[in-house]
Amino acid sequence: MRYIRLNHRVVRISKRRDTTKGTFCDQIANTEDNPLQAALKLSPQAVGDGTASEASVDDYSDSQWEVAYTTADPGITAVEHFDAVIVCNGHYSHPFQPNVPGMQEHYHKETYHSRDYDRIKYTLLGKRVLVVGSKSSGTDMARELTQIARHVFVSDRNYKHEIDDSSSADSDDGETTAAPRVSNLELLPGISHFEPSVDDDESVIVFTDGQQLRNVDAILWCTGFLYKFPFIDAQIDSTLRAPITVEGGKRVRPLHLQLLCIEDPSLAFIGLPFSVVPFPLFYCQALYVAAVYSGQTTLPSQDEQYALLVEREASLRARGLYDGKYHYLGDEQFQYVRLLSRSSGHLPTADRGVHGSLGPMQEEDGDGIYGSGGVGDKEKEEEEEKRRRWGRYIDFLEAIYGDNGLHKPRYVGAPDTYRDRRYRVNW
Ligand SMILES: Cc1cc2nc3c(=O)[nH]c(=O)nc-3n(C[C@H](O)[C@H](O)[C@H](O)COP(=O)(O)OP(=O)(O)OC[C@H]3O[C@@H](n4cnc5c(N)ncnc54)[C@H](O)[C@@H]3O)c2cc1C
Ligand SMILES: NC(=O)c1ccc[n+]([C@@H]2O[C@H](COP(=O)([O-])OP(=O)(O)OC[C@H]3O[C@@H](n4cnc5c(N)ncnc54)[C@H](OP(=O)(O)O)[C@@H]3O)[C@@H](O)[C@H]2O)c1
């Protein structure tokens, strides 16, 4: 497989749709000459009724990805062709700001998004600031702003009075200890709407419990980000295939394991899941994609991938996560990384029978990823020890994640000693 480093901004990735050749799956099902396409060859169900077209190798040139990118020369766009594209463009750069009723009409003061915090924070000096959202950004920024702003209000739609009333937080040793309140920090529930004031030209911010807030100088939206792939969205004409859609900036679908395009597995996305320990999880995603693209792991059929997706989406809907938290993993992440690691051959052999929803490993006689052909006992044992270590690494991650979670502050402004926890690990 050829790869090059493109140290430039990608502006479009596209595949031309040739309706005479059937689907991408039809096309790759018949090619053995291209190793990547052979690796992605799907099982018979994937090609529908099995009437895949008799395409020649030349026909497949169209199923490469055309990647257009800007170069250092202004105005110049270069083009390269690739068998596969793995998109890793991050998802913390396109701000999401909810559209609260009445805001456009009645609130005319400063508004910012957490993305721009470093640039704007000192403009908030001495002001009354409303921070909306209290996950990592909201919590960190509200804490710091108490040193800069005159008064900081934090609106969290999950706010519960009993948390604010609590004056305690878990200490490092698990005991409950008194936590000093921050005098210029106040917690509020979600915003219901904005209203005009009858007394002056100030707006009134009304919260879901009926409380009202006036004289807010600035609002800092710490309400997260949107998934965006401008280089995929840039469809210049209808013959270009768009194998995924991004719904409401929150759902990238249809993907197998939040990772590989079901319609076209030569397009992969690493890094979509959130509320995770990012780097080990993304690493496991990379292992799985590499195993699929190198032919060491066989994908389940397209029908099976869709069936798994339908099952997962039903579960997300049942848990109220479908709309805003489609790519949320949280505690599920360790099951997910084990599944990816196992299916890419990175967990011990003893576990290999359990493939979960990832599809079977390829285990050809002697040459499969766990095969013994040509590999001596010593190397086999070393490989196995590597897999055991990887398994232990995931176990430790899970244990640390679980323990650290117990020490996170339960409300904004509580001590954040959890950041300074140290673990001695013997693996
Ligand atoms: C404020 C903040 C604090 C965080 N703190 C932590 C922390 O303490 N610990 C932790 O583990 N995680 C932390 N995270 C999360 C972590 O930063 C992300 O999970 C991680 O950076 C994601 O890595 P990534 O490679 O997927 O995306 P990114 O790191 O966002 O990298 C994406 C890359 O793609 C490039 N790119 C985008 N579009 C194009 C294009 N069209 N063409 C070419 N290149 C493009 C970008 O320039 C960038 O280099 C934090 C995130 C934020 C926002
Ligand atoms: N110190 C750190 O390590 C650090 C610091 C900053 C950021 N980060 C990372 O940066 C990433 C982004 O974090 P983030 O805090 O910016 O975003 P986030 O985790 O997506 O949190 C968004 C917040 O906005 C709220 N929200 C979303 N939609 C809303 C709506 N319509 N109305 C009201 N509230 C709404 C959410 O509430 P719900 O919970 O109810 O959805 C949540 O409180 C994360 O990976 C995070 O770990 C890390």
Quick tags:
single chain, 427 residues, alpha/beta, FAD/NAD(P)-binding domain, five-stranded parallel sheet, three-stranded antiparallel sheet, 11 helices, 19 strands, 26% helix, 17% strand, globular, binds flavin-adenine dinucleotide, binds NADP nicotinamide-adenine-dinucleotide phosphate
Describe this structure in words.
It is a single chain. The protein is an alpha/beta fold and 427 residues long. The protein is 26% helix and 17% strand. The protein is built from eleven helices and 19 strands. A five-stranded parallel sheet has the order 5-14-6-7-10, covered by helices on one side. Strands 1-2-3 form a three-stranded antiparallel sheet. Strand 12 (203-207) and strand 13 (212-213) form a beta hairpin. Helix 8 runs parallel beside helix 10. It is globular and about 80 Å long. The two termini are 35 Å apart. Residues 92, 98, 114, 132-138, 140, 156-158, 190, 222-224, 274, 324 line the site of NADP nicotinamide-adenine-dinucleotide phosphate (NAP).
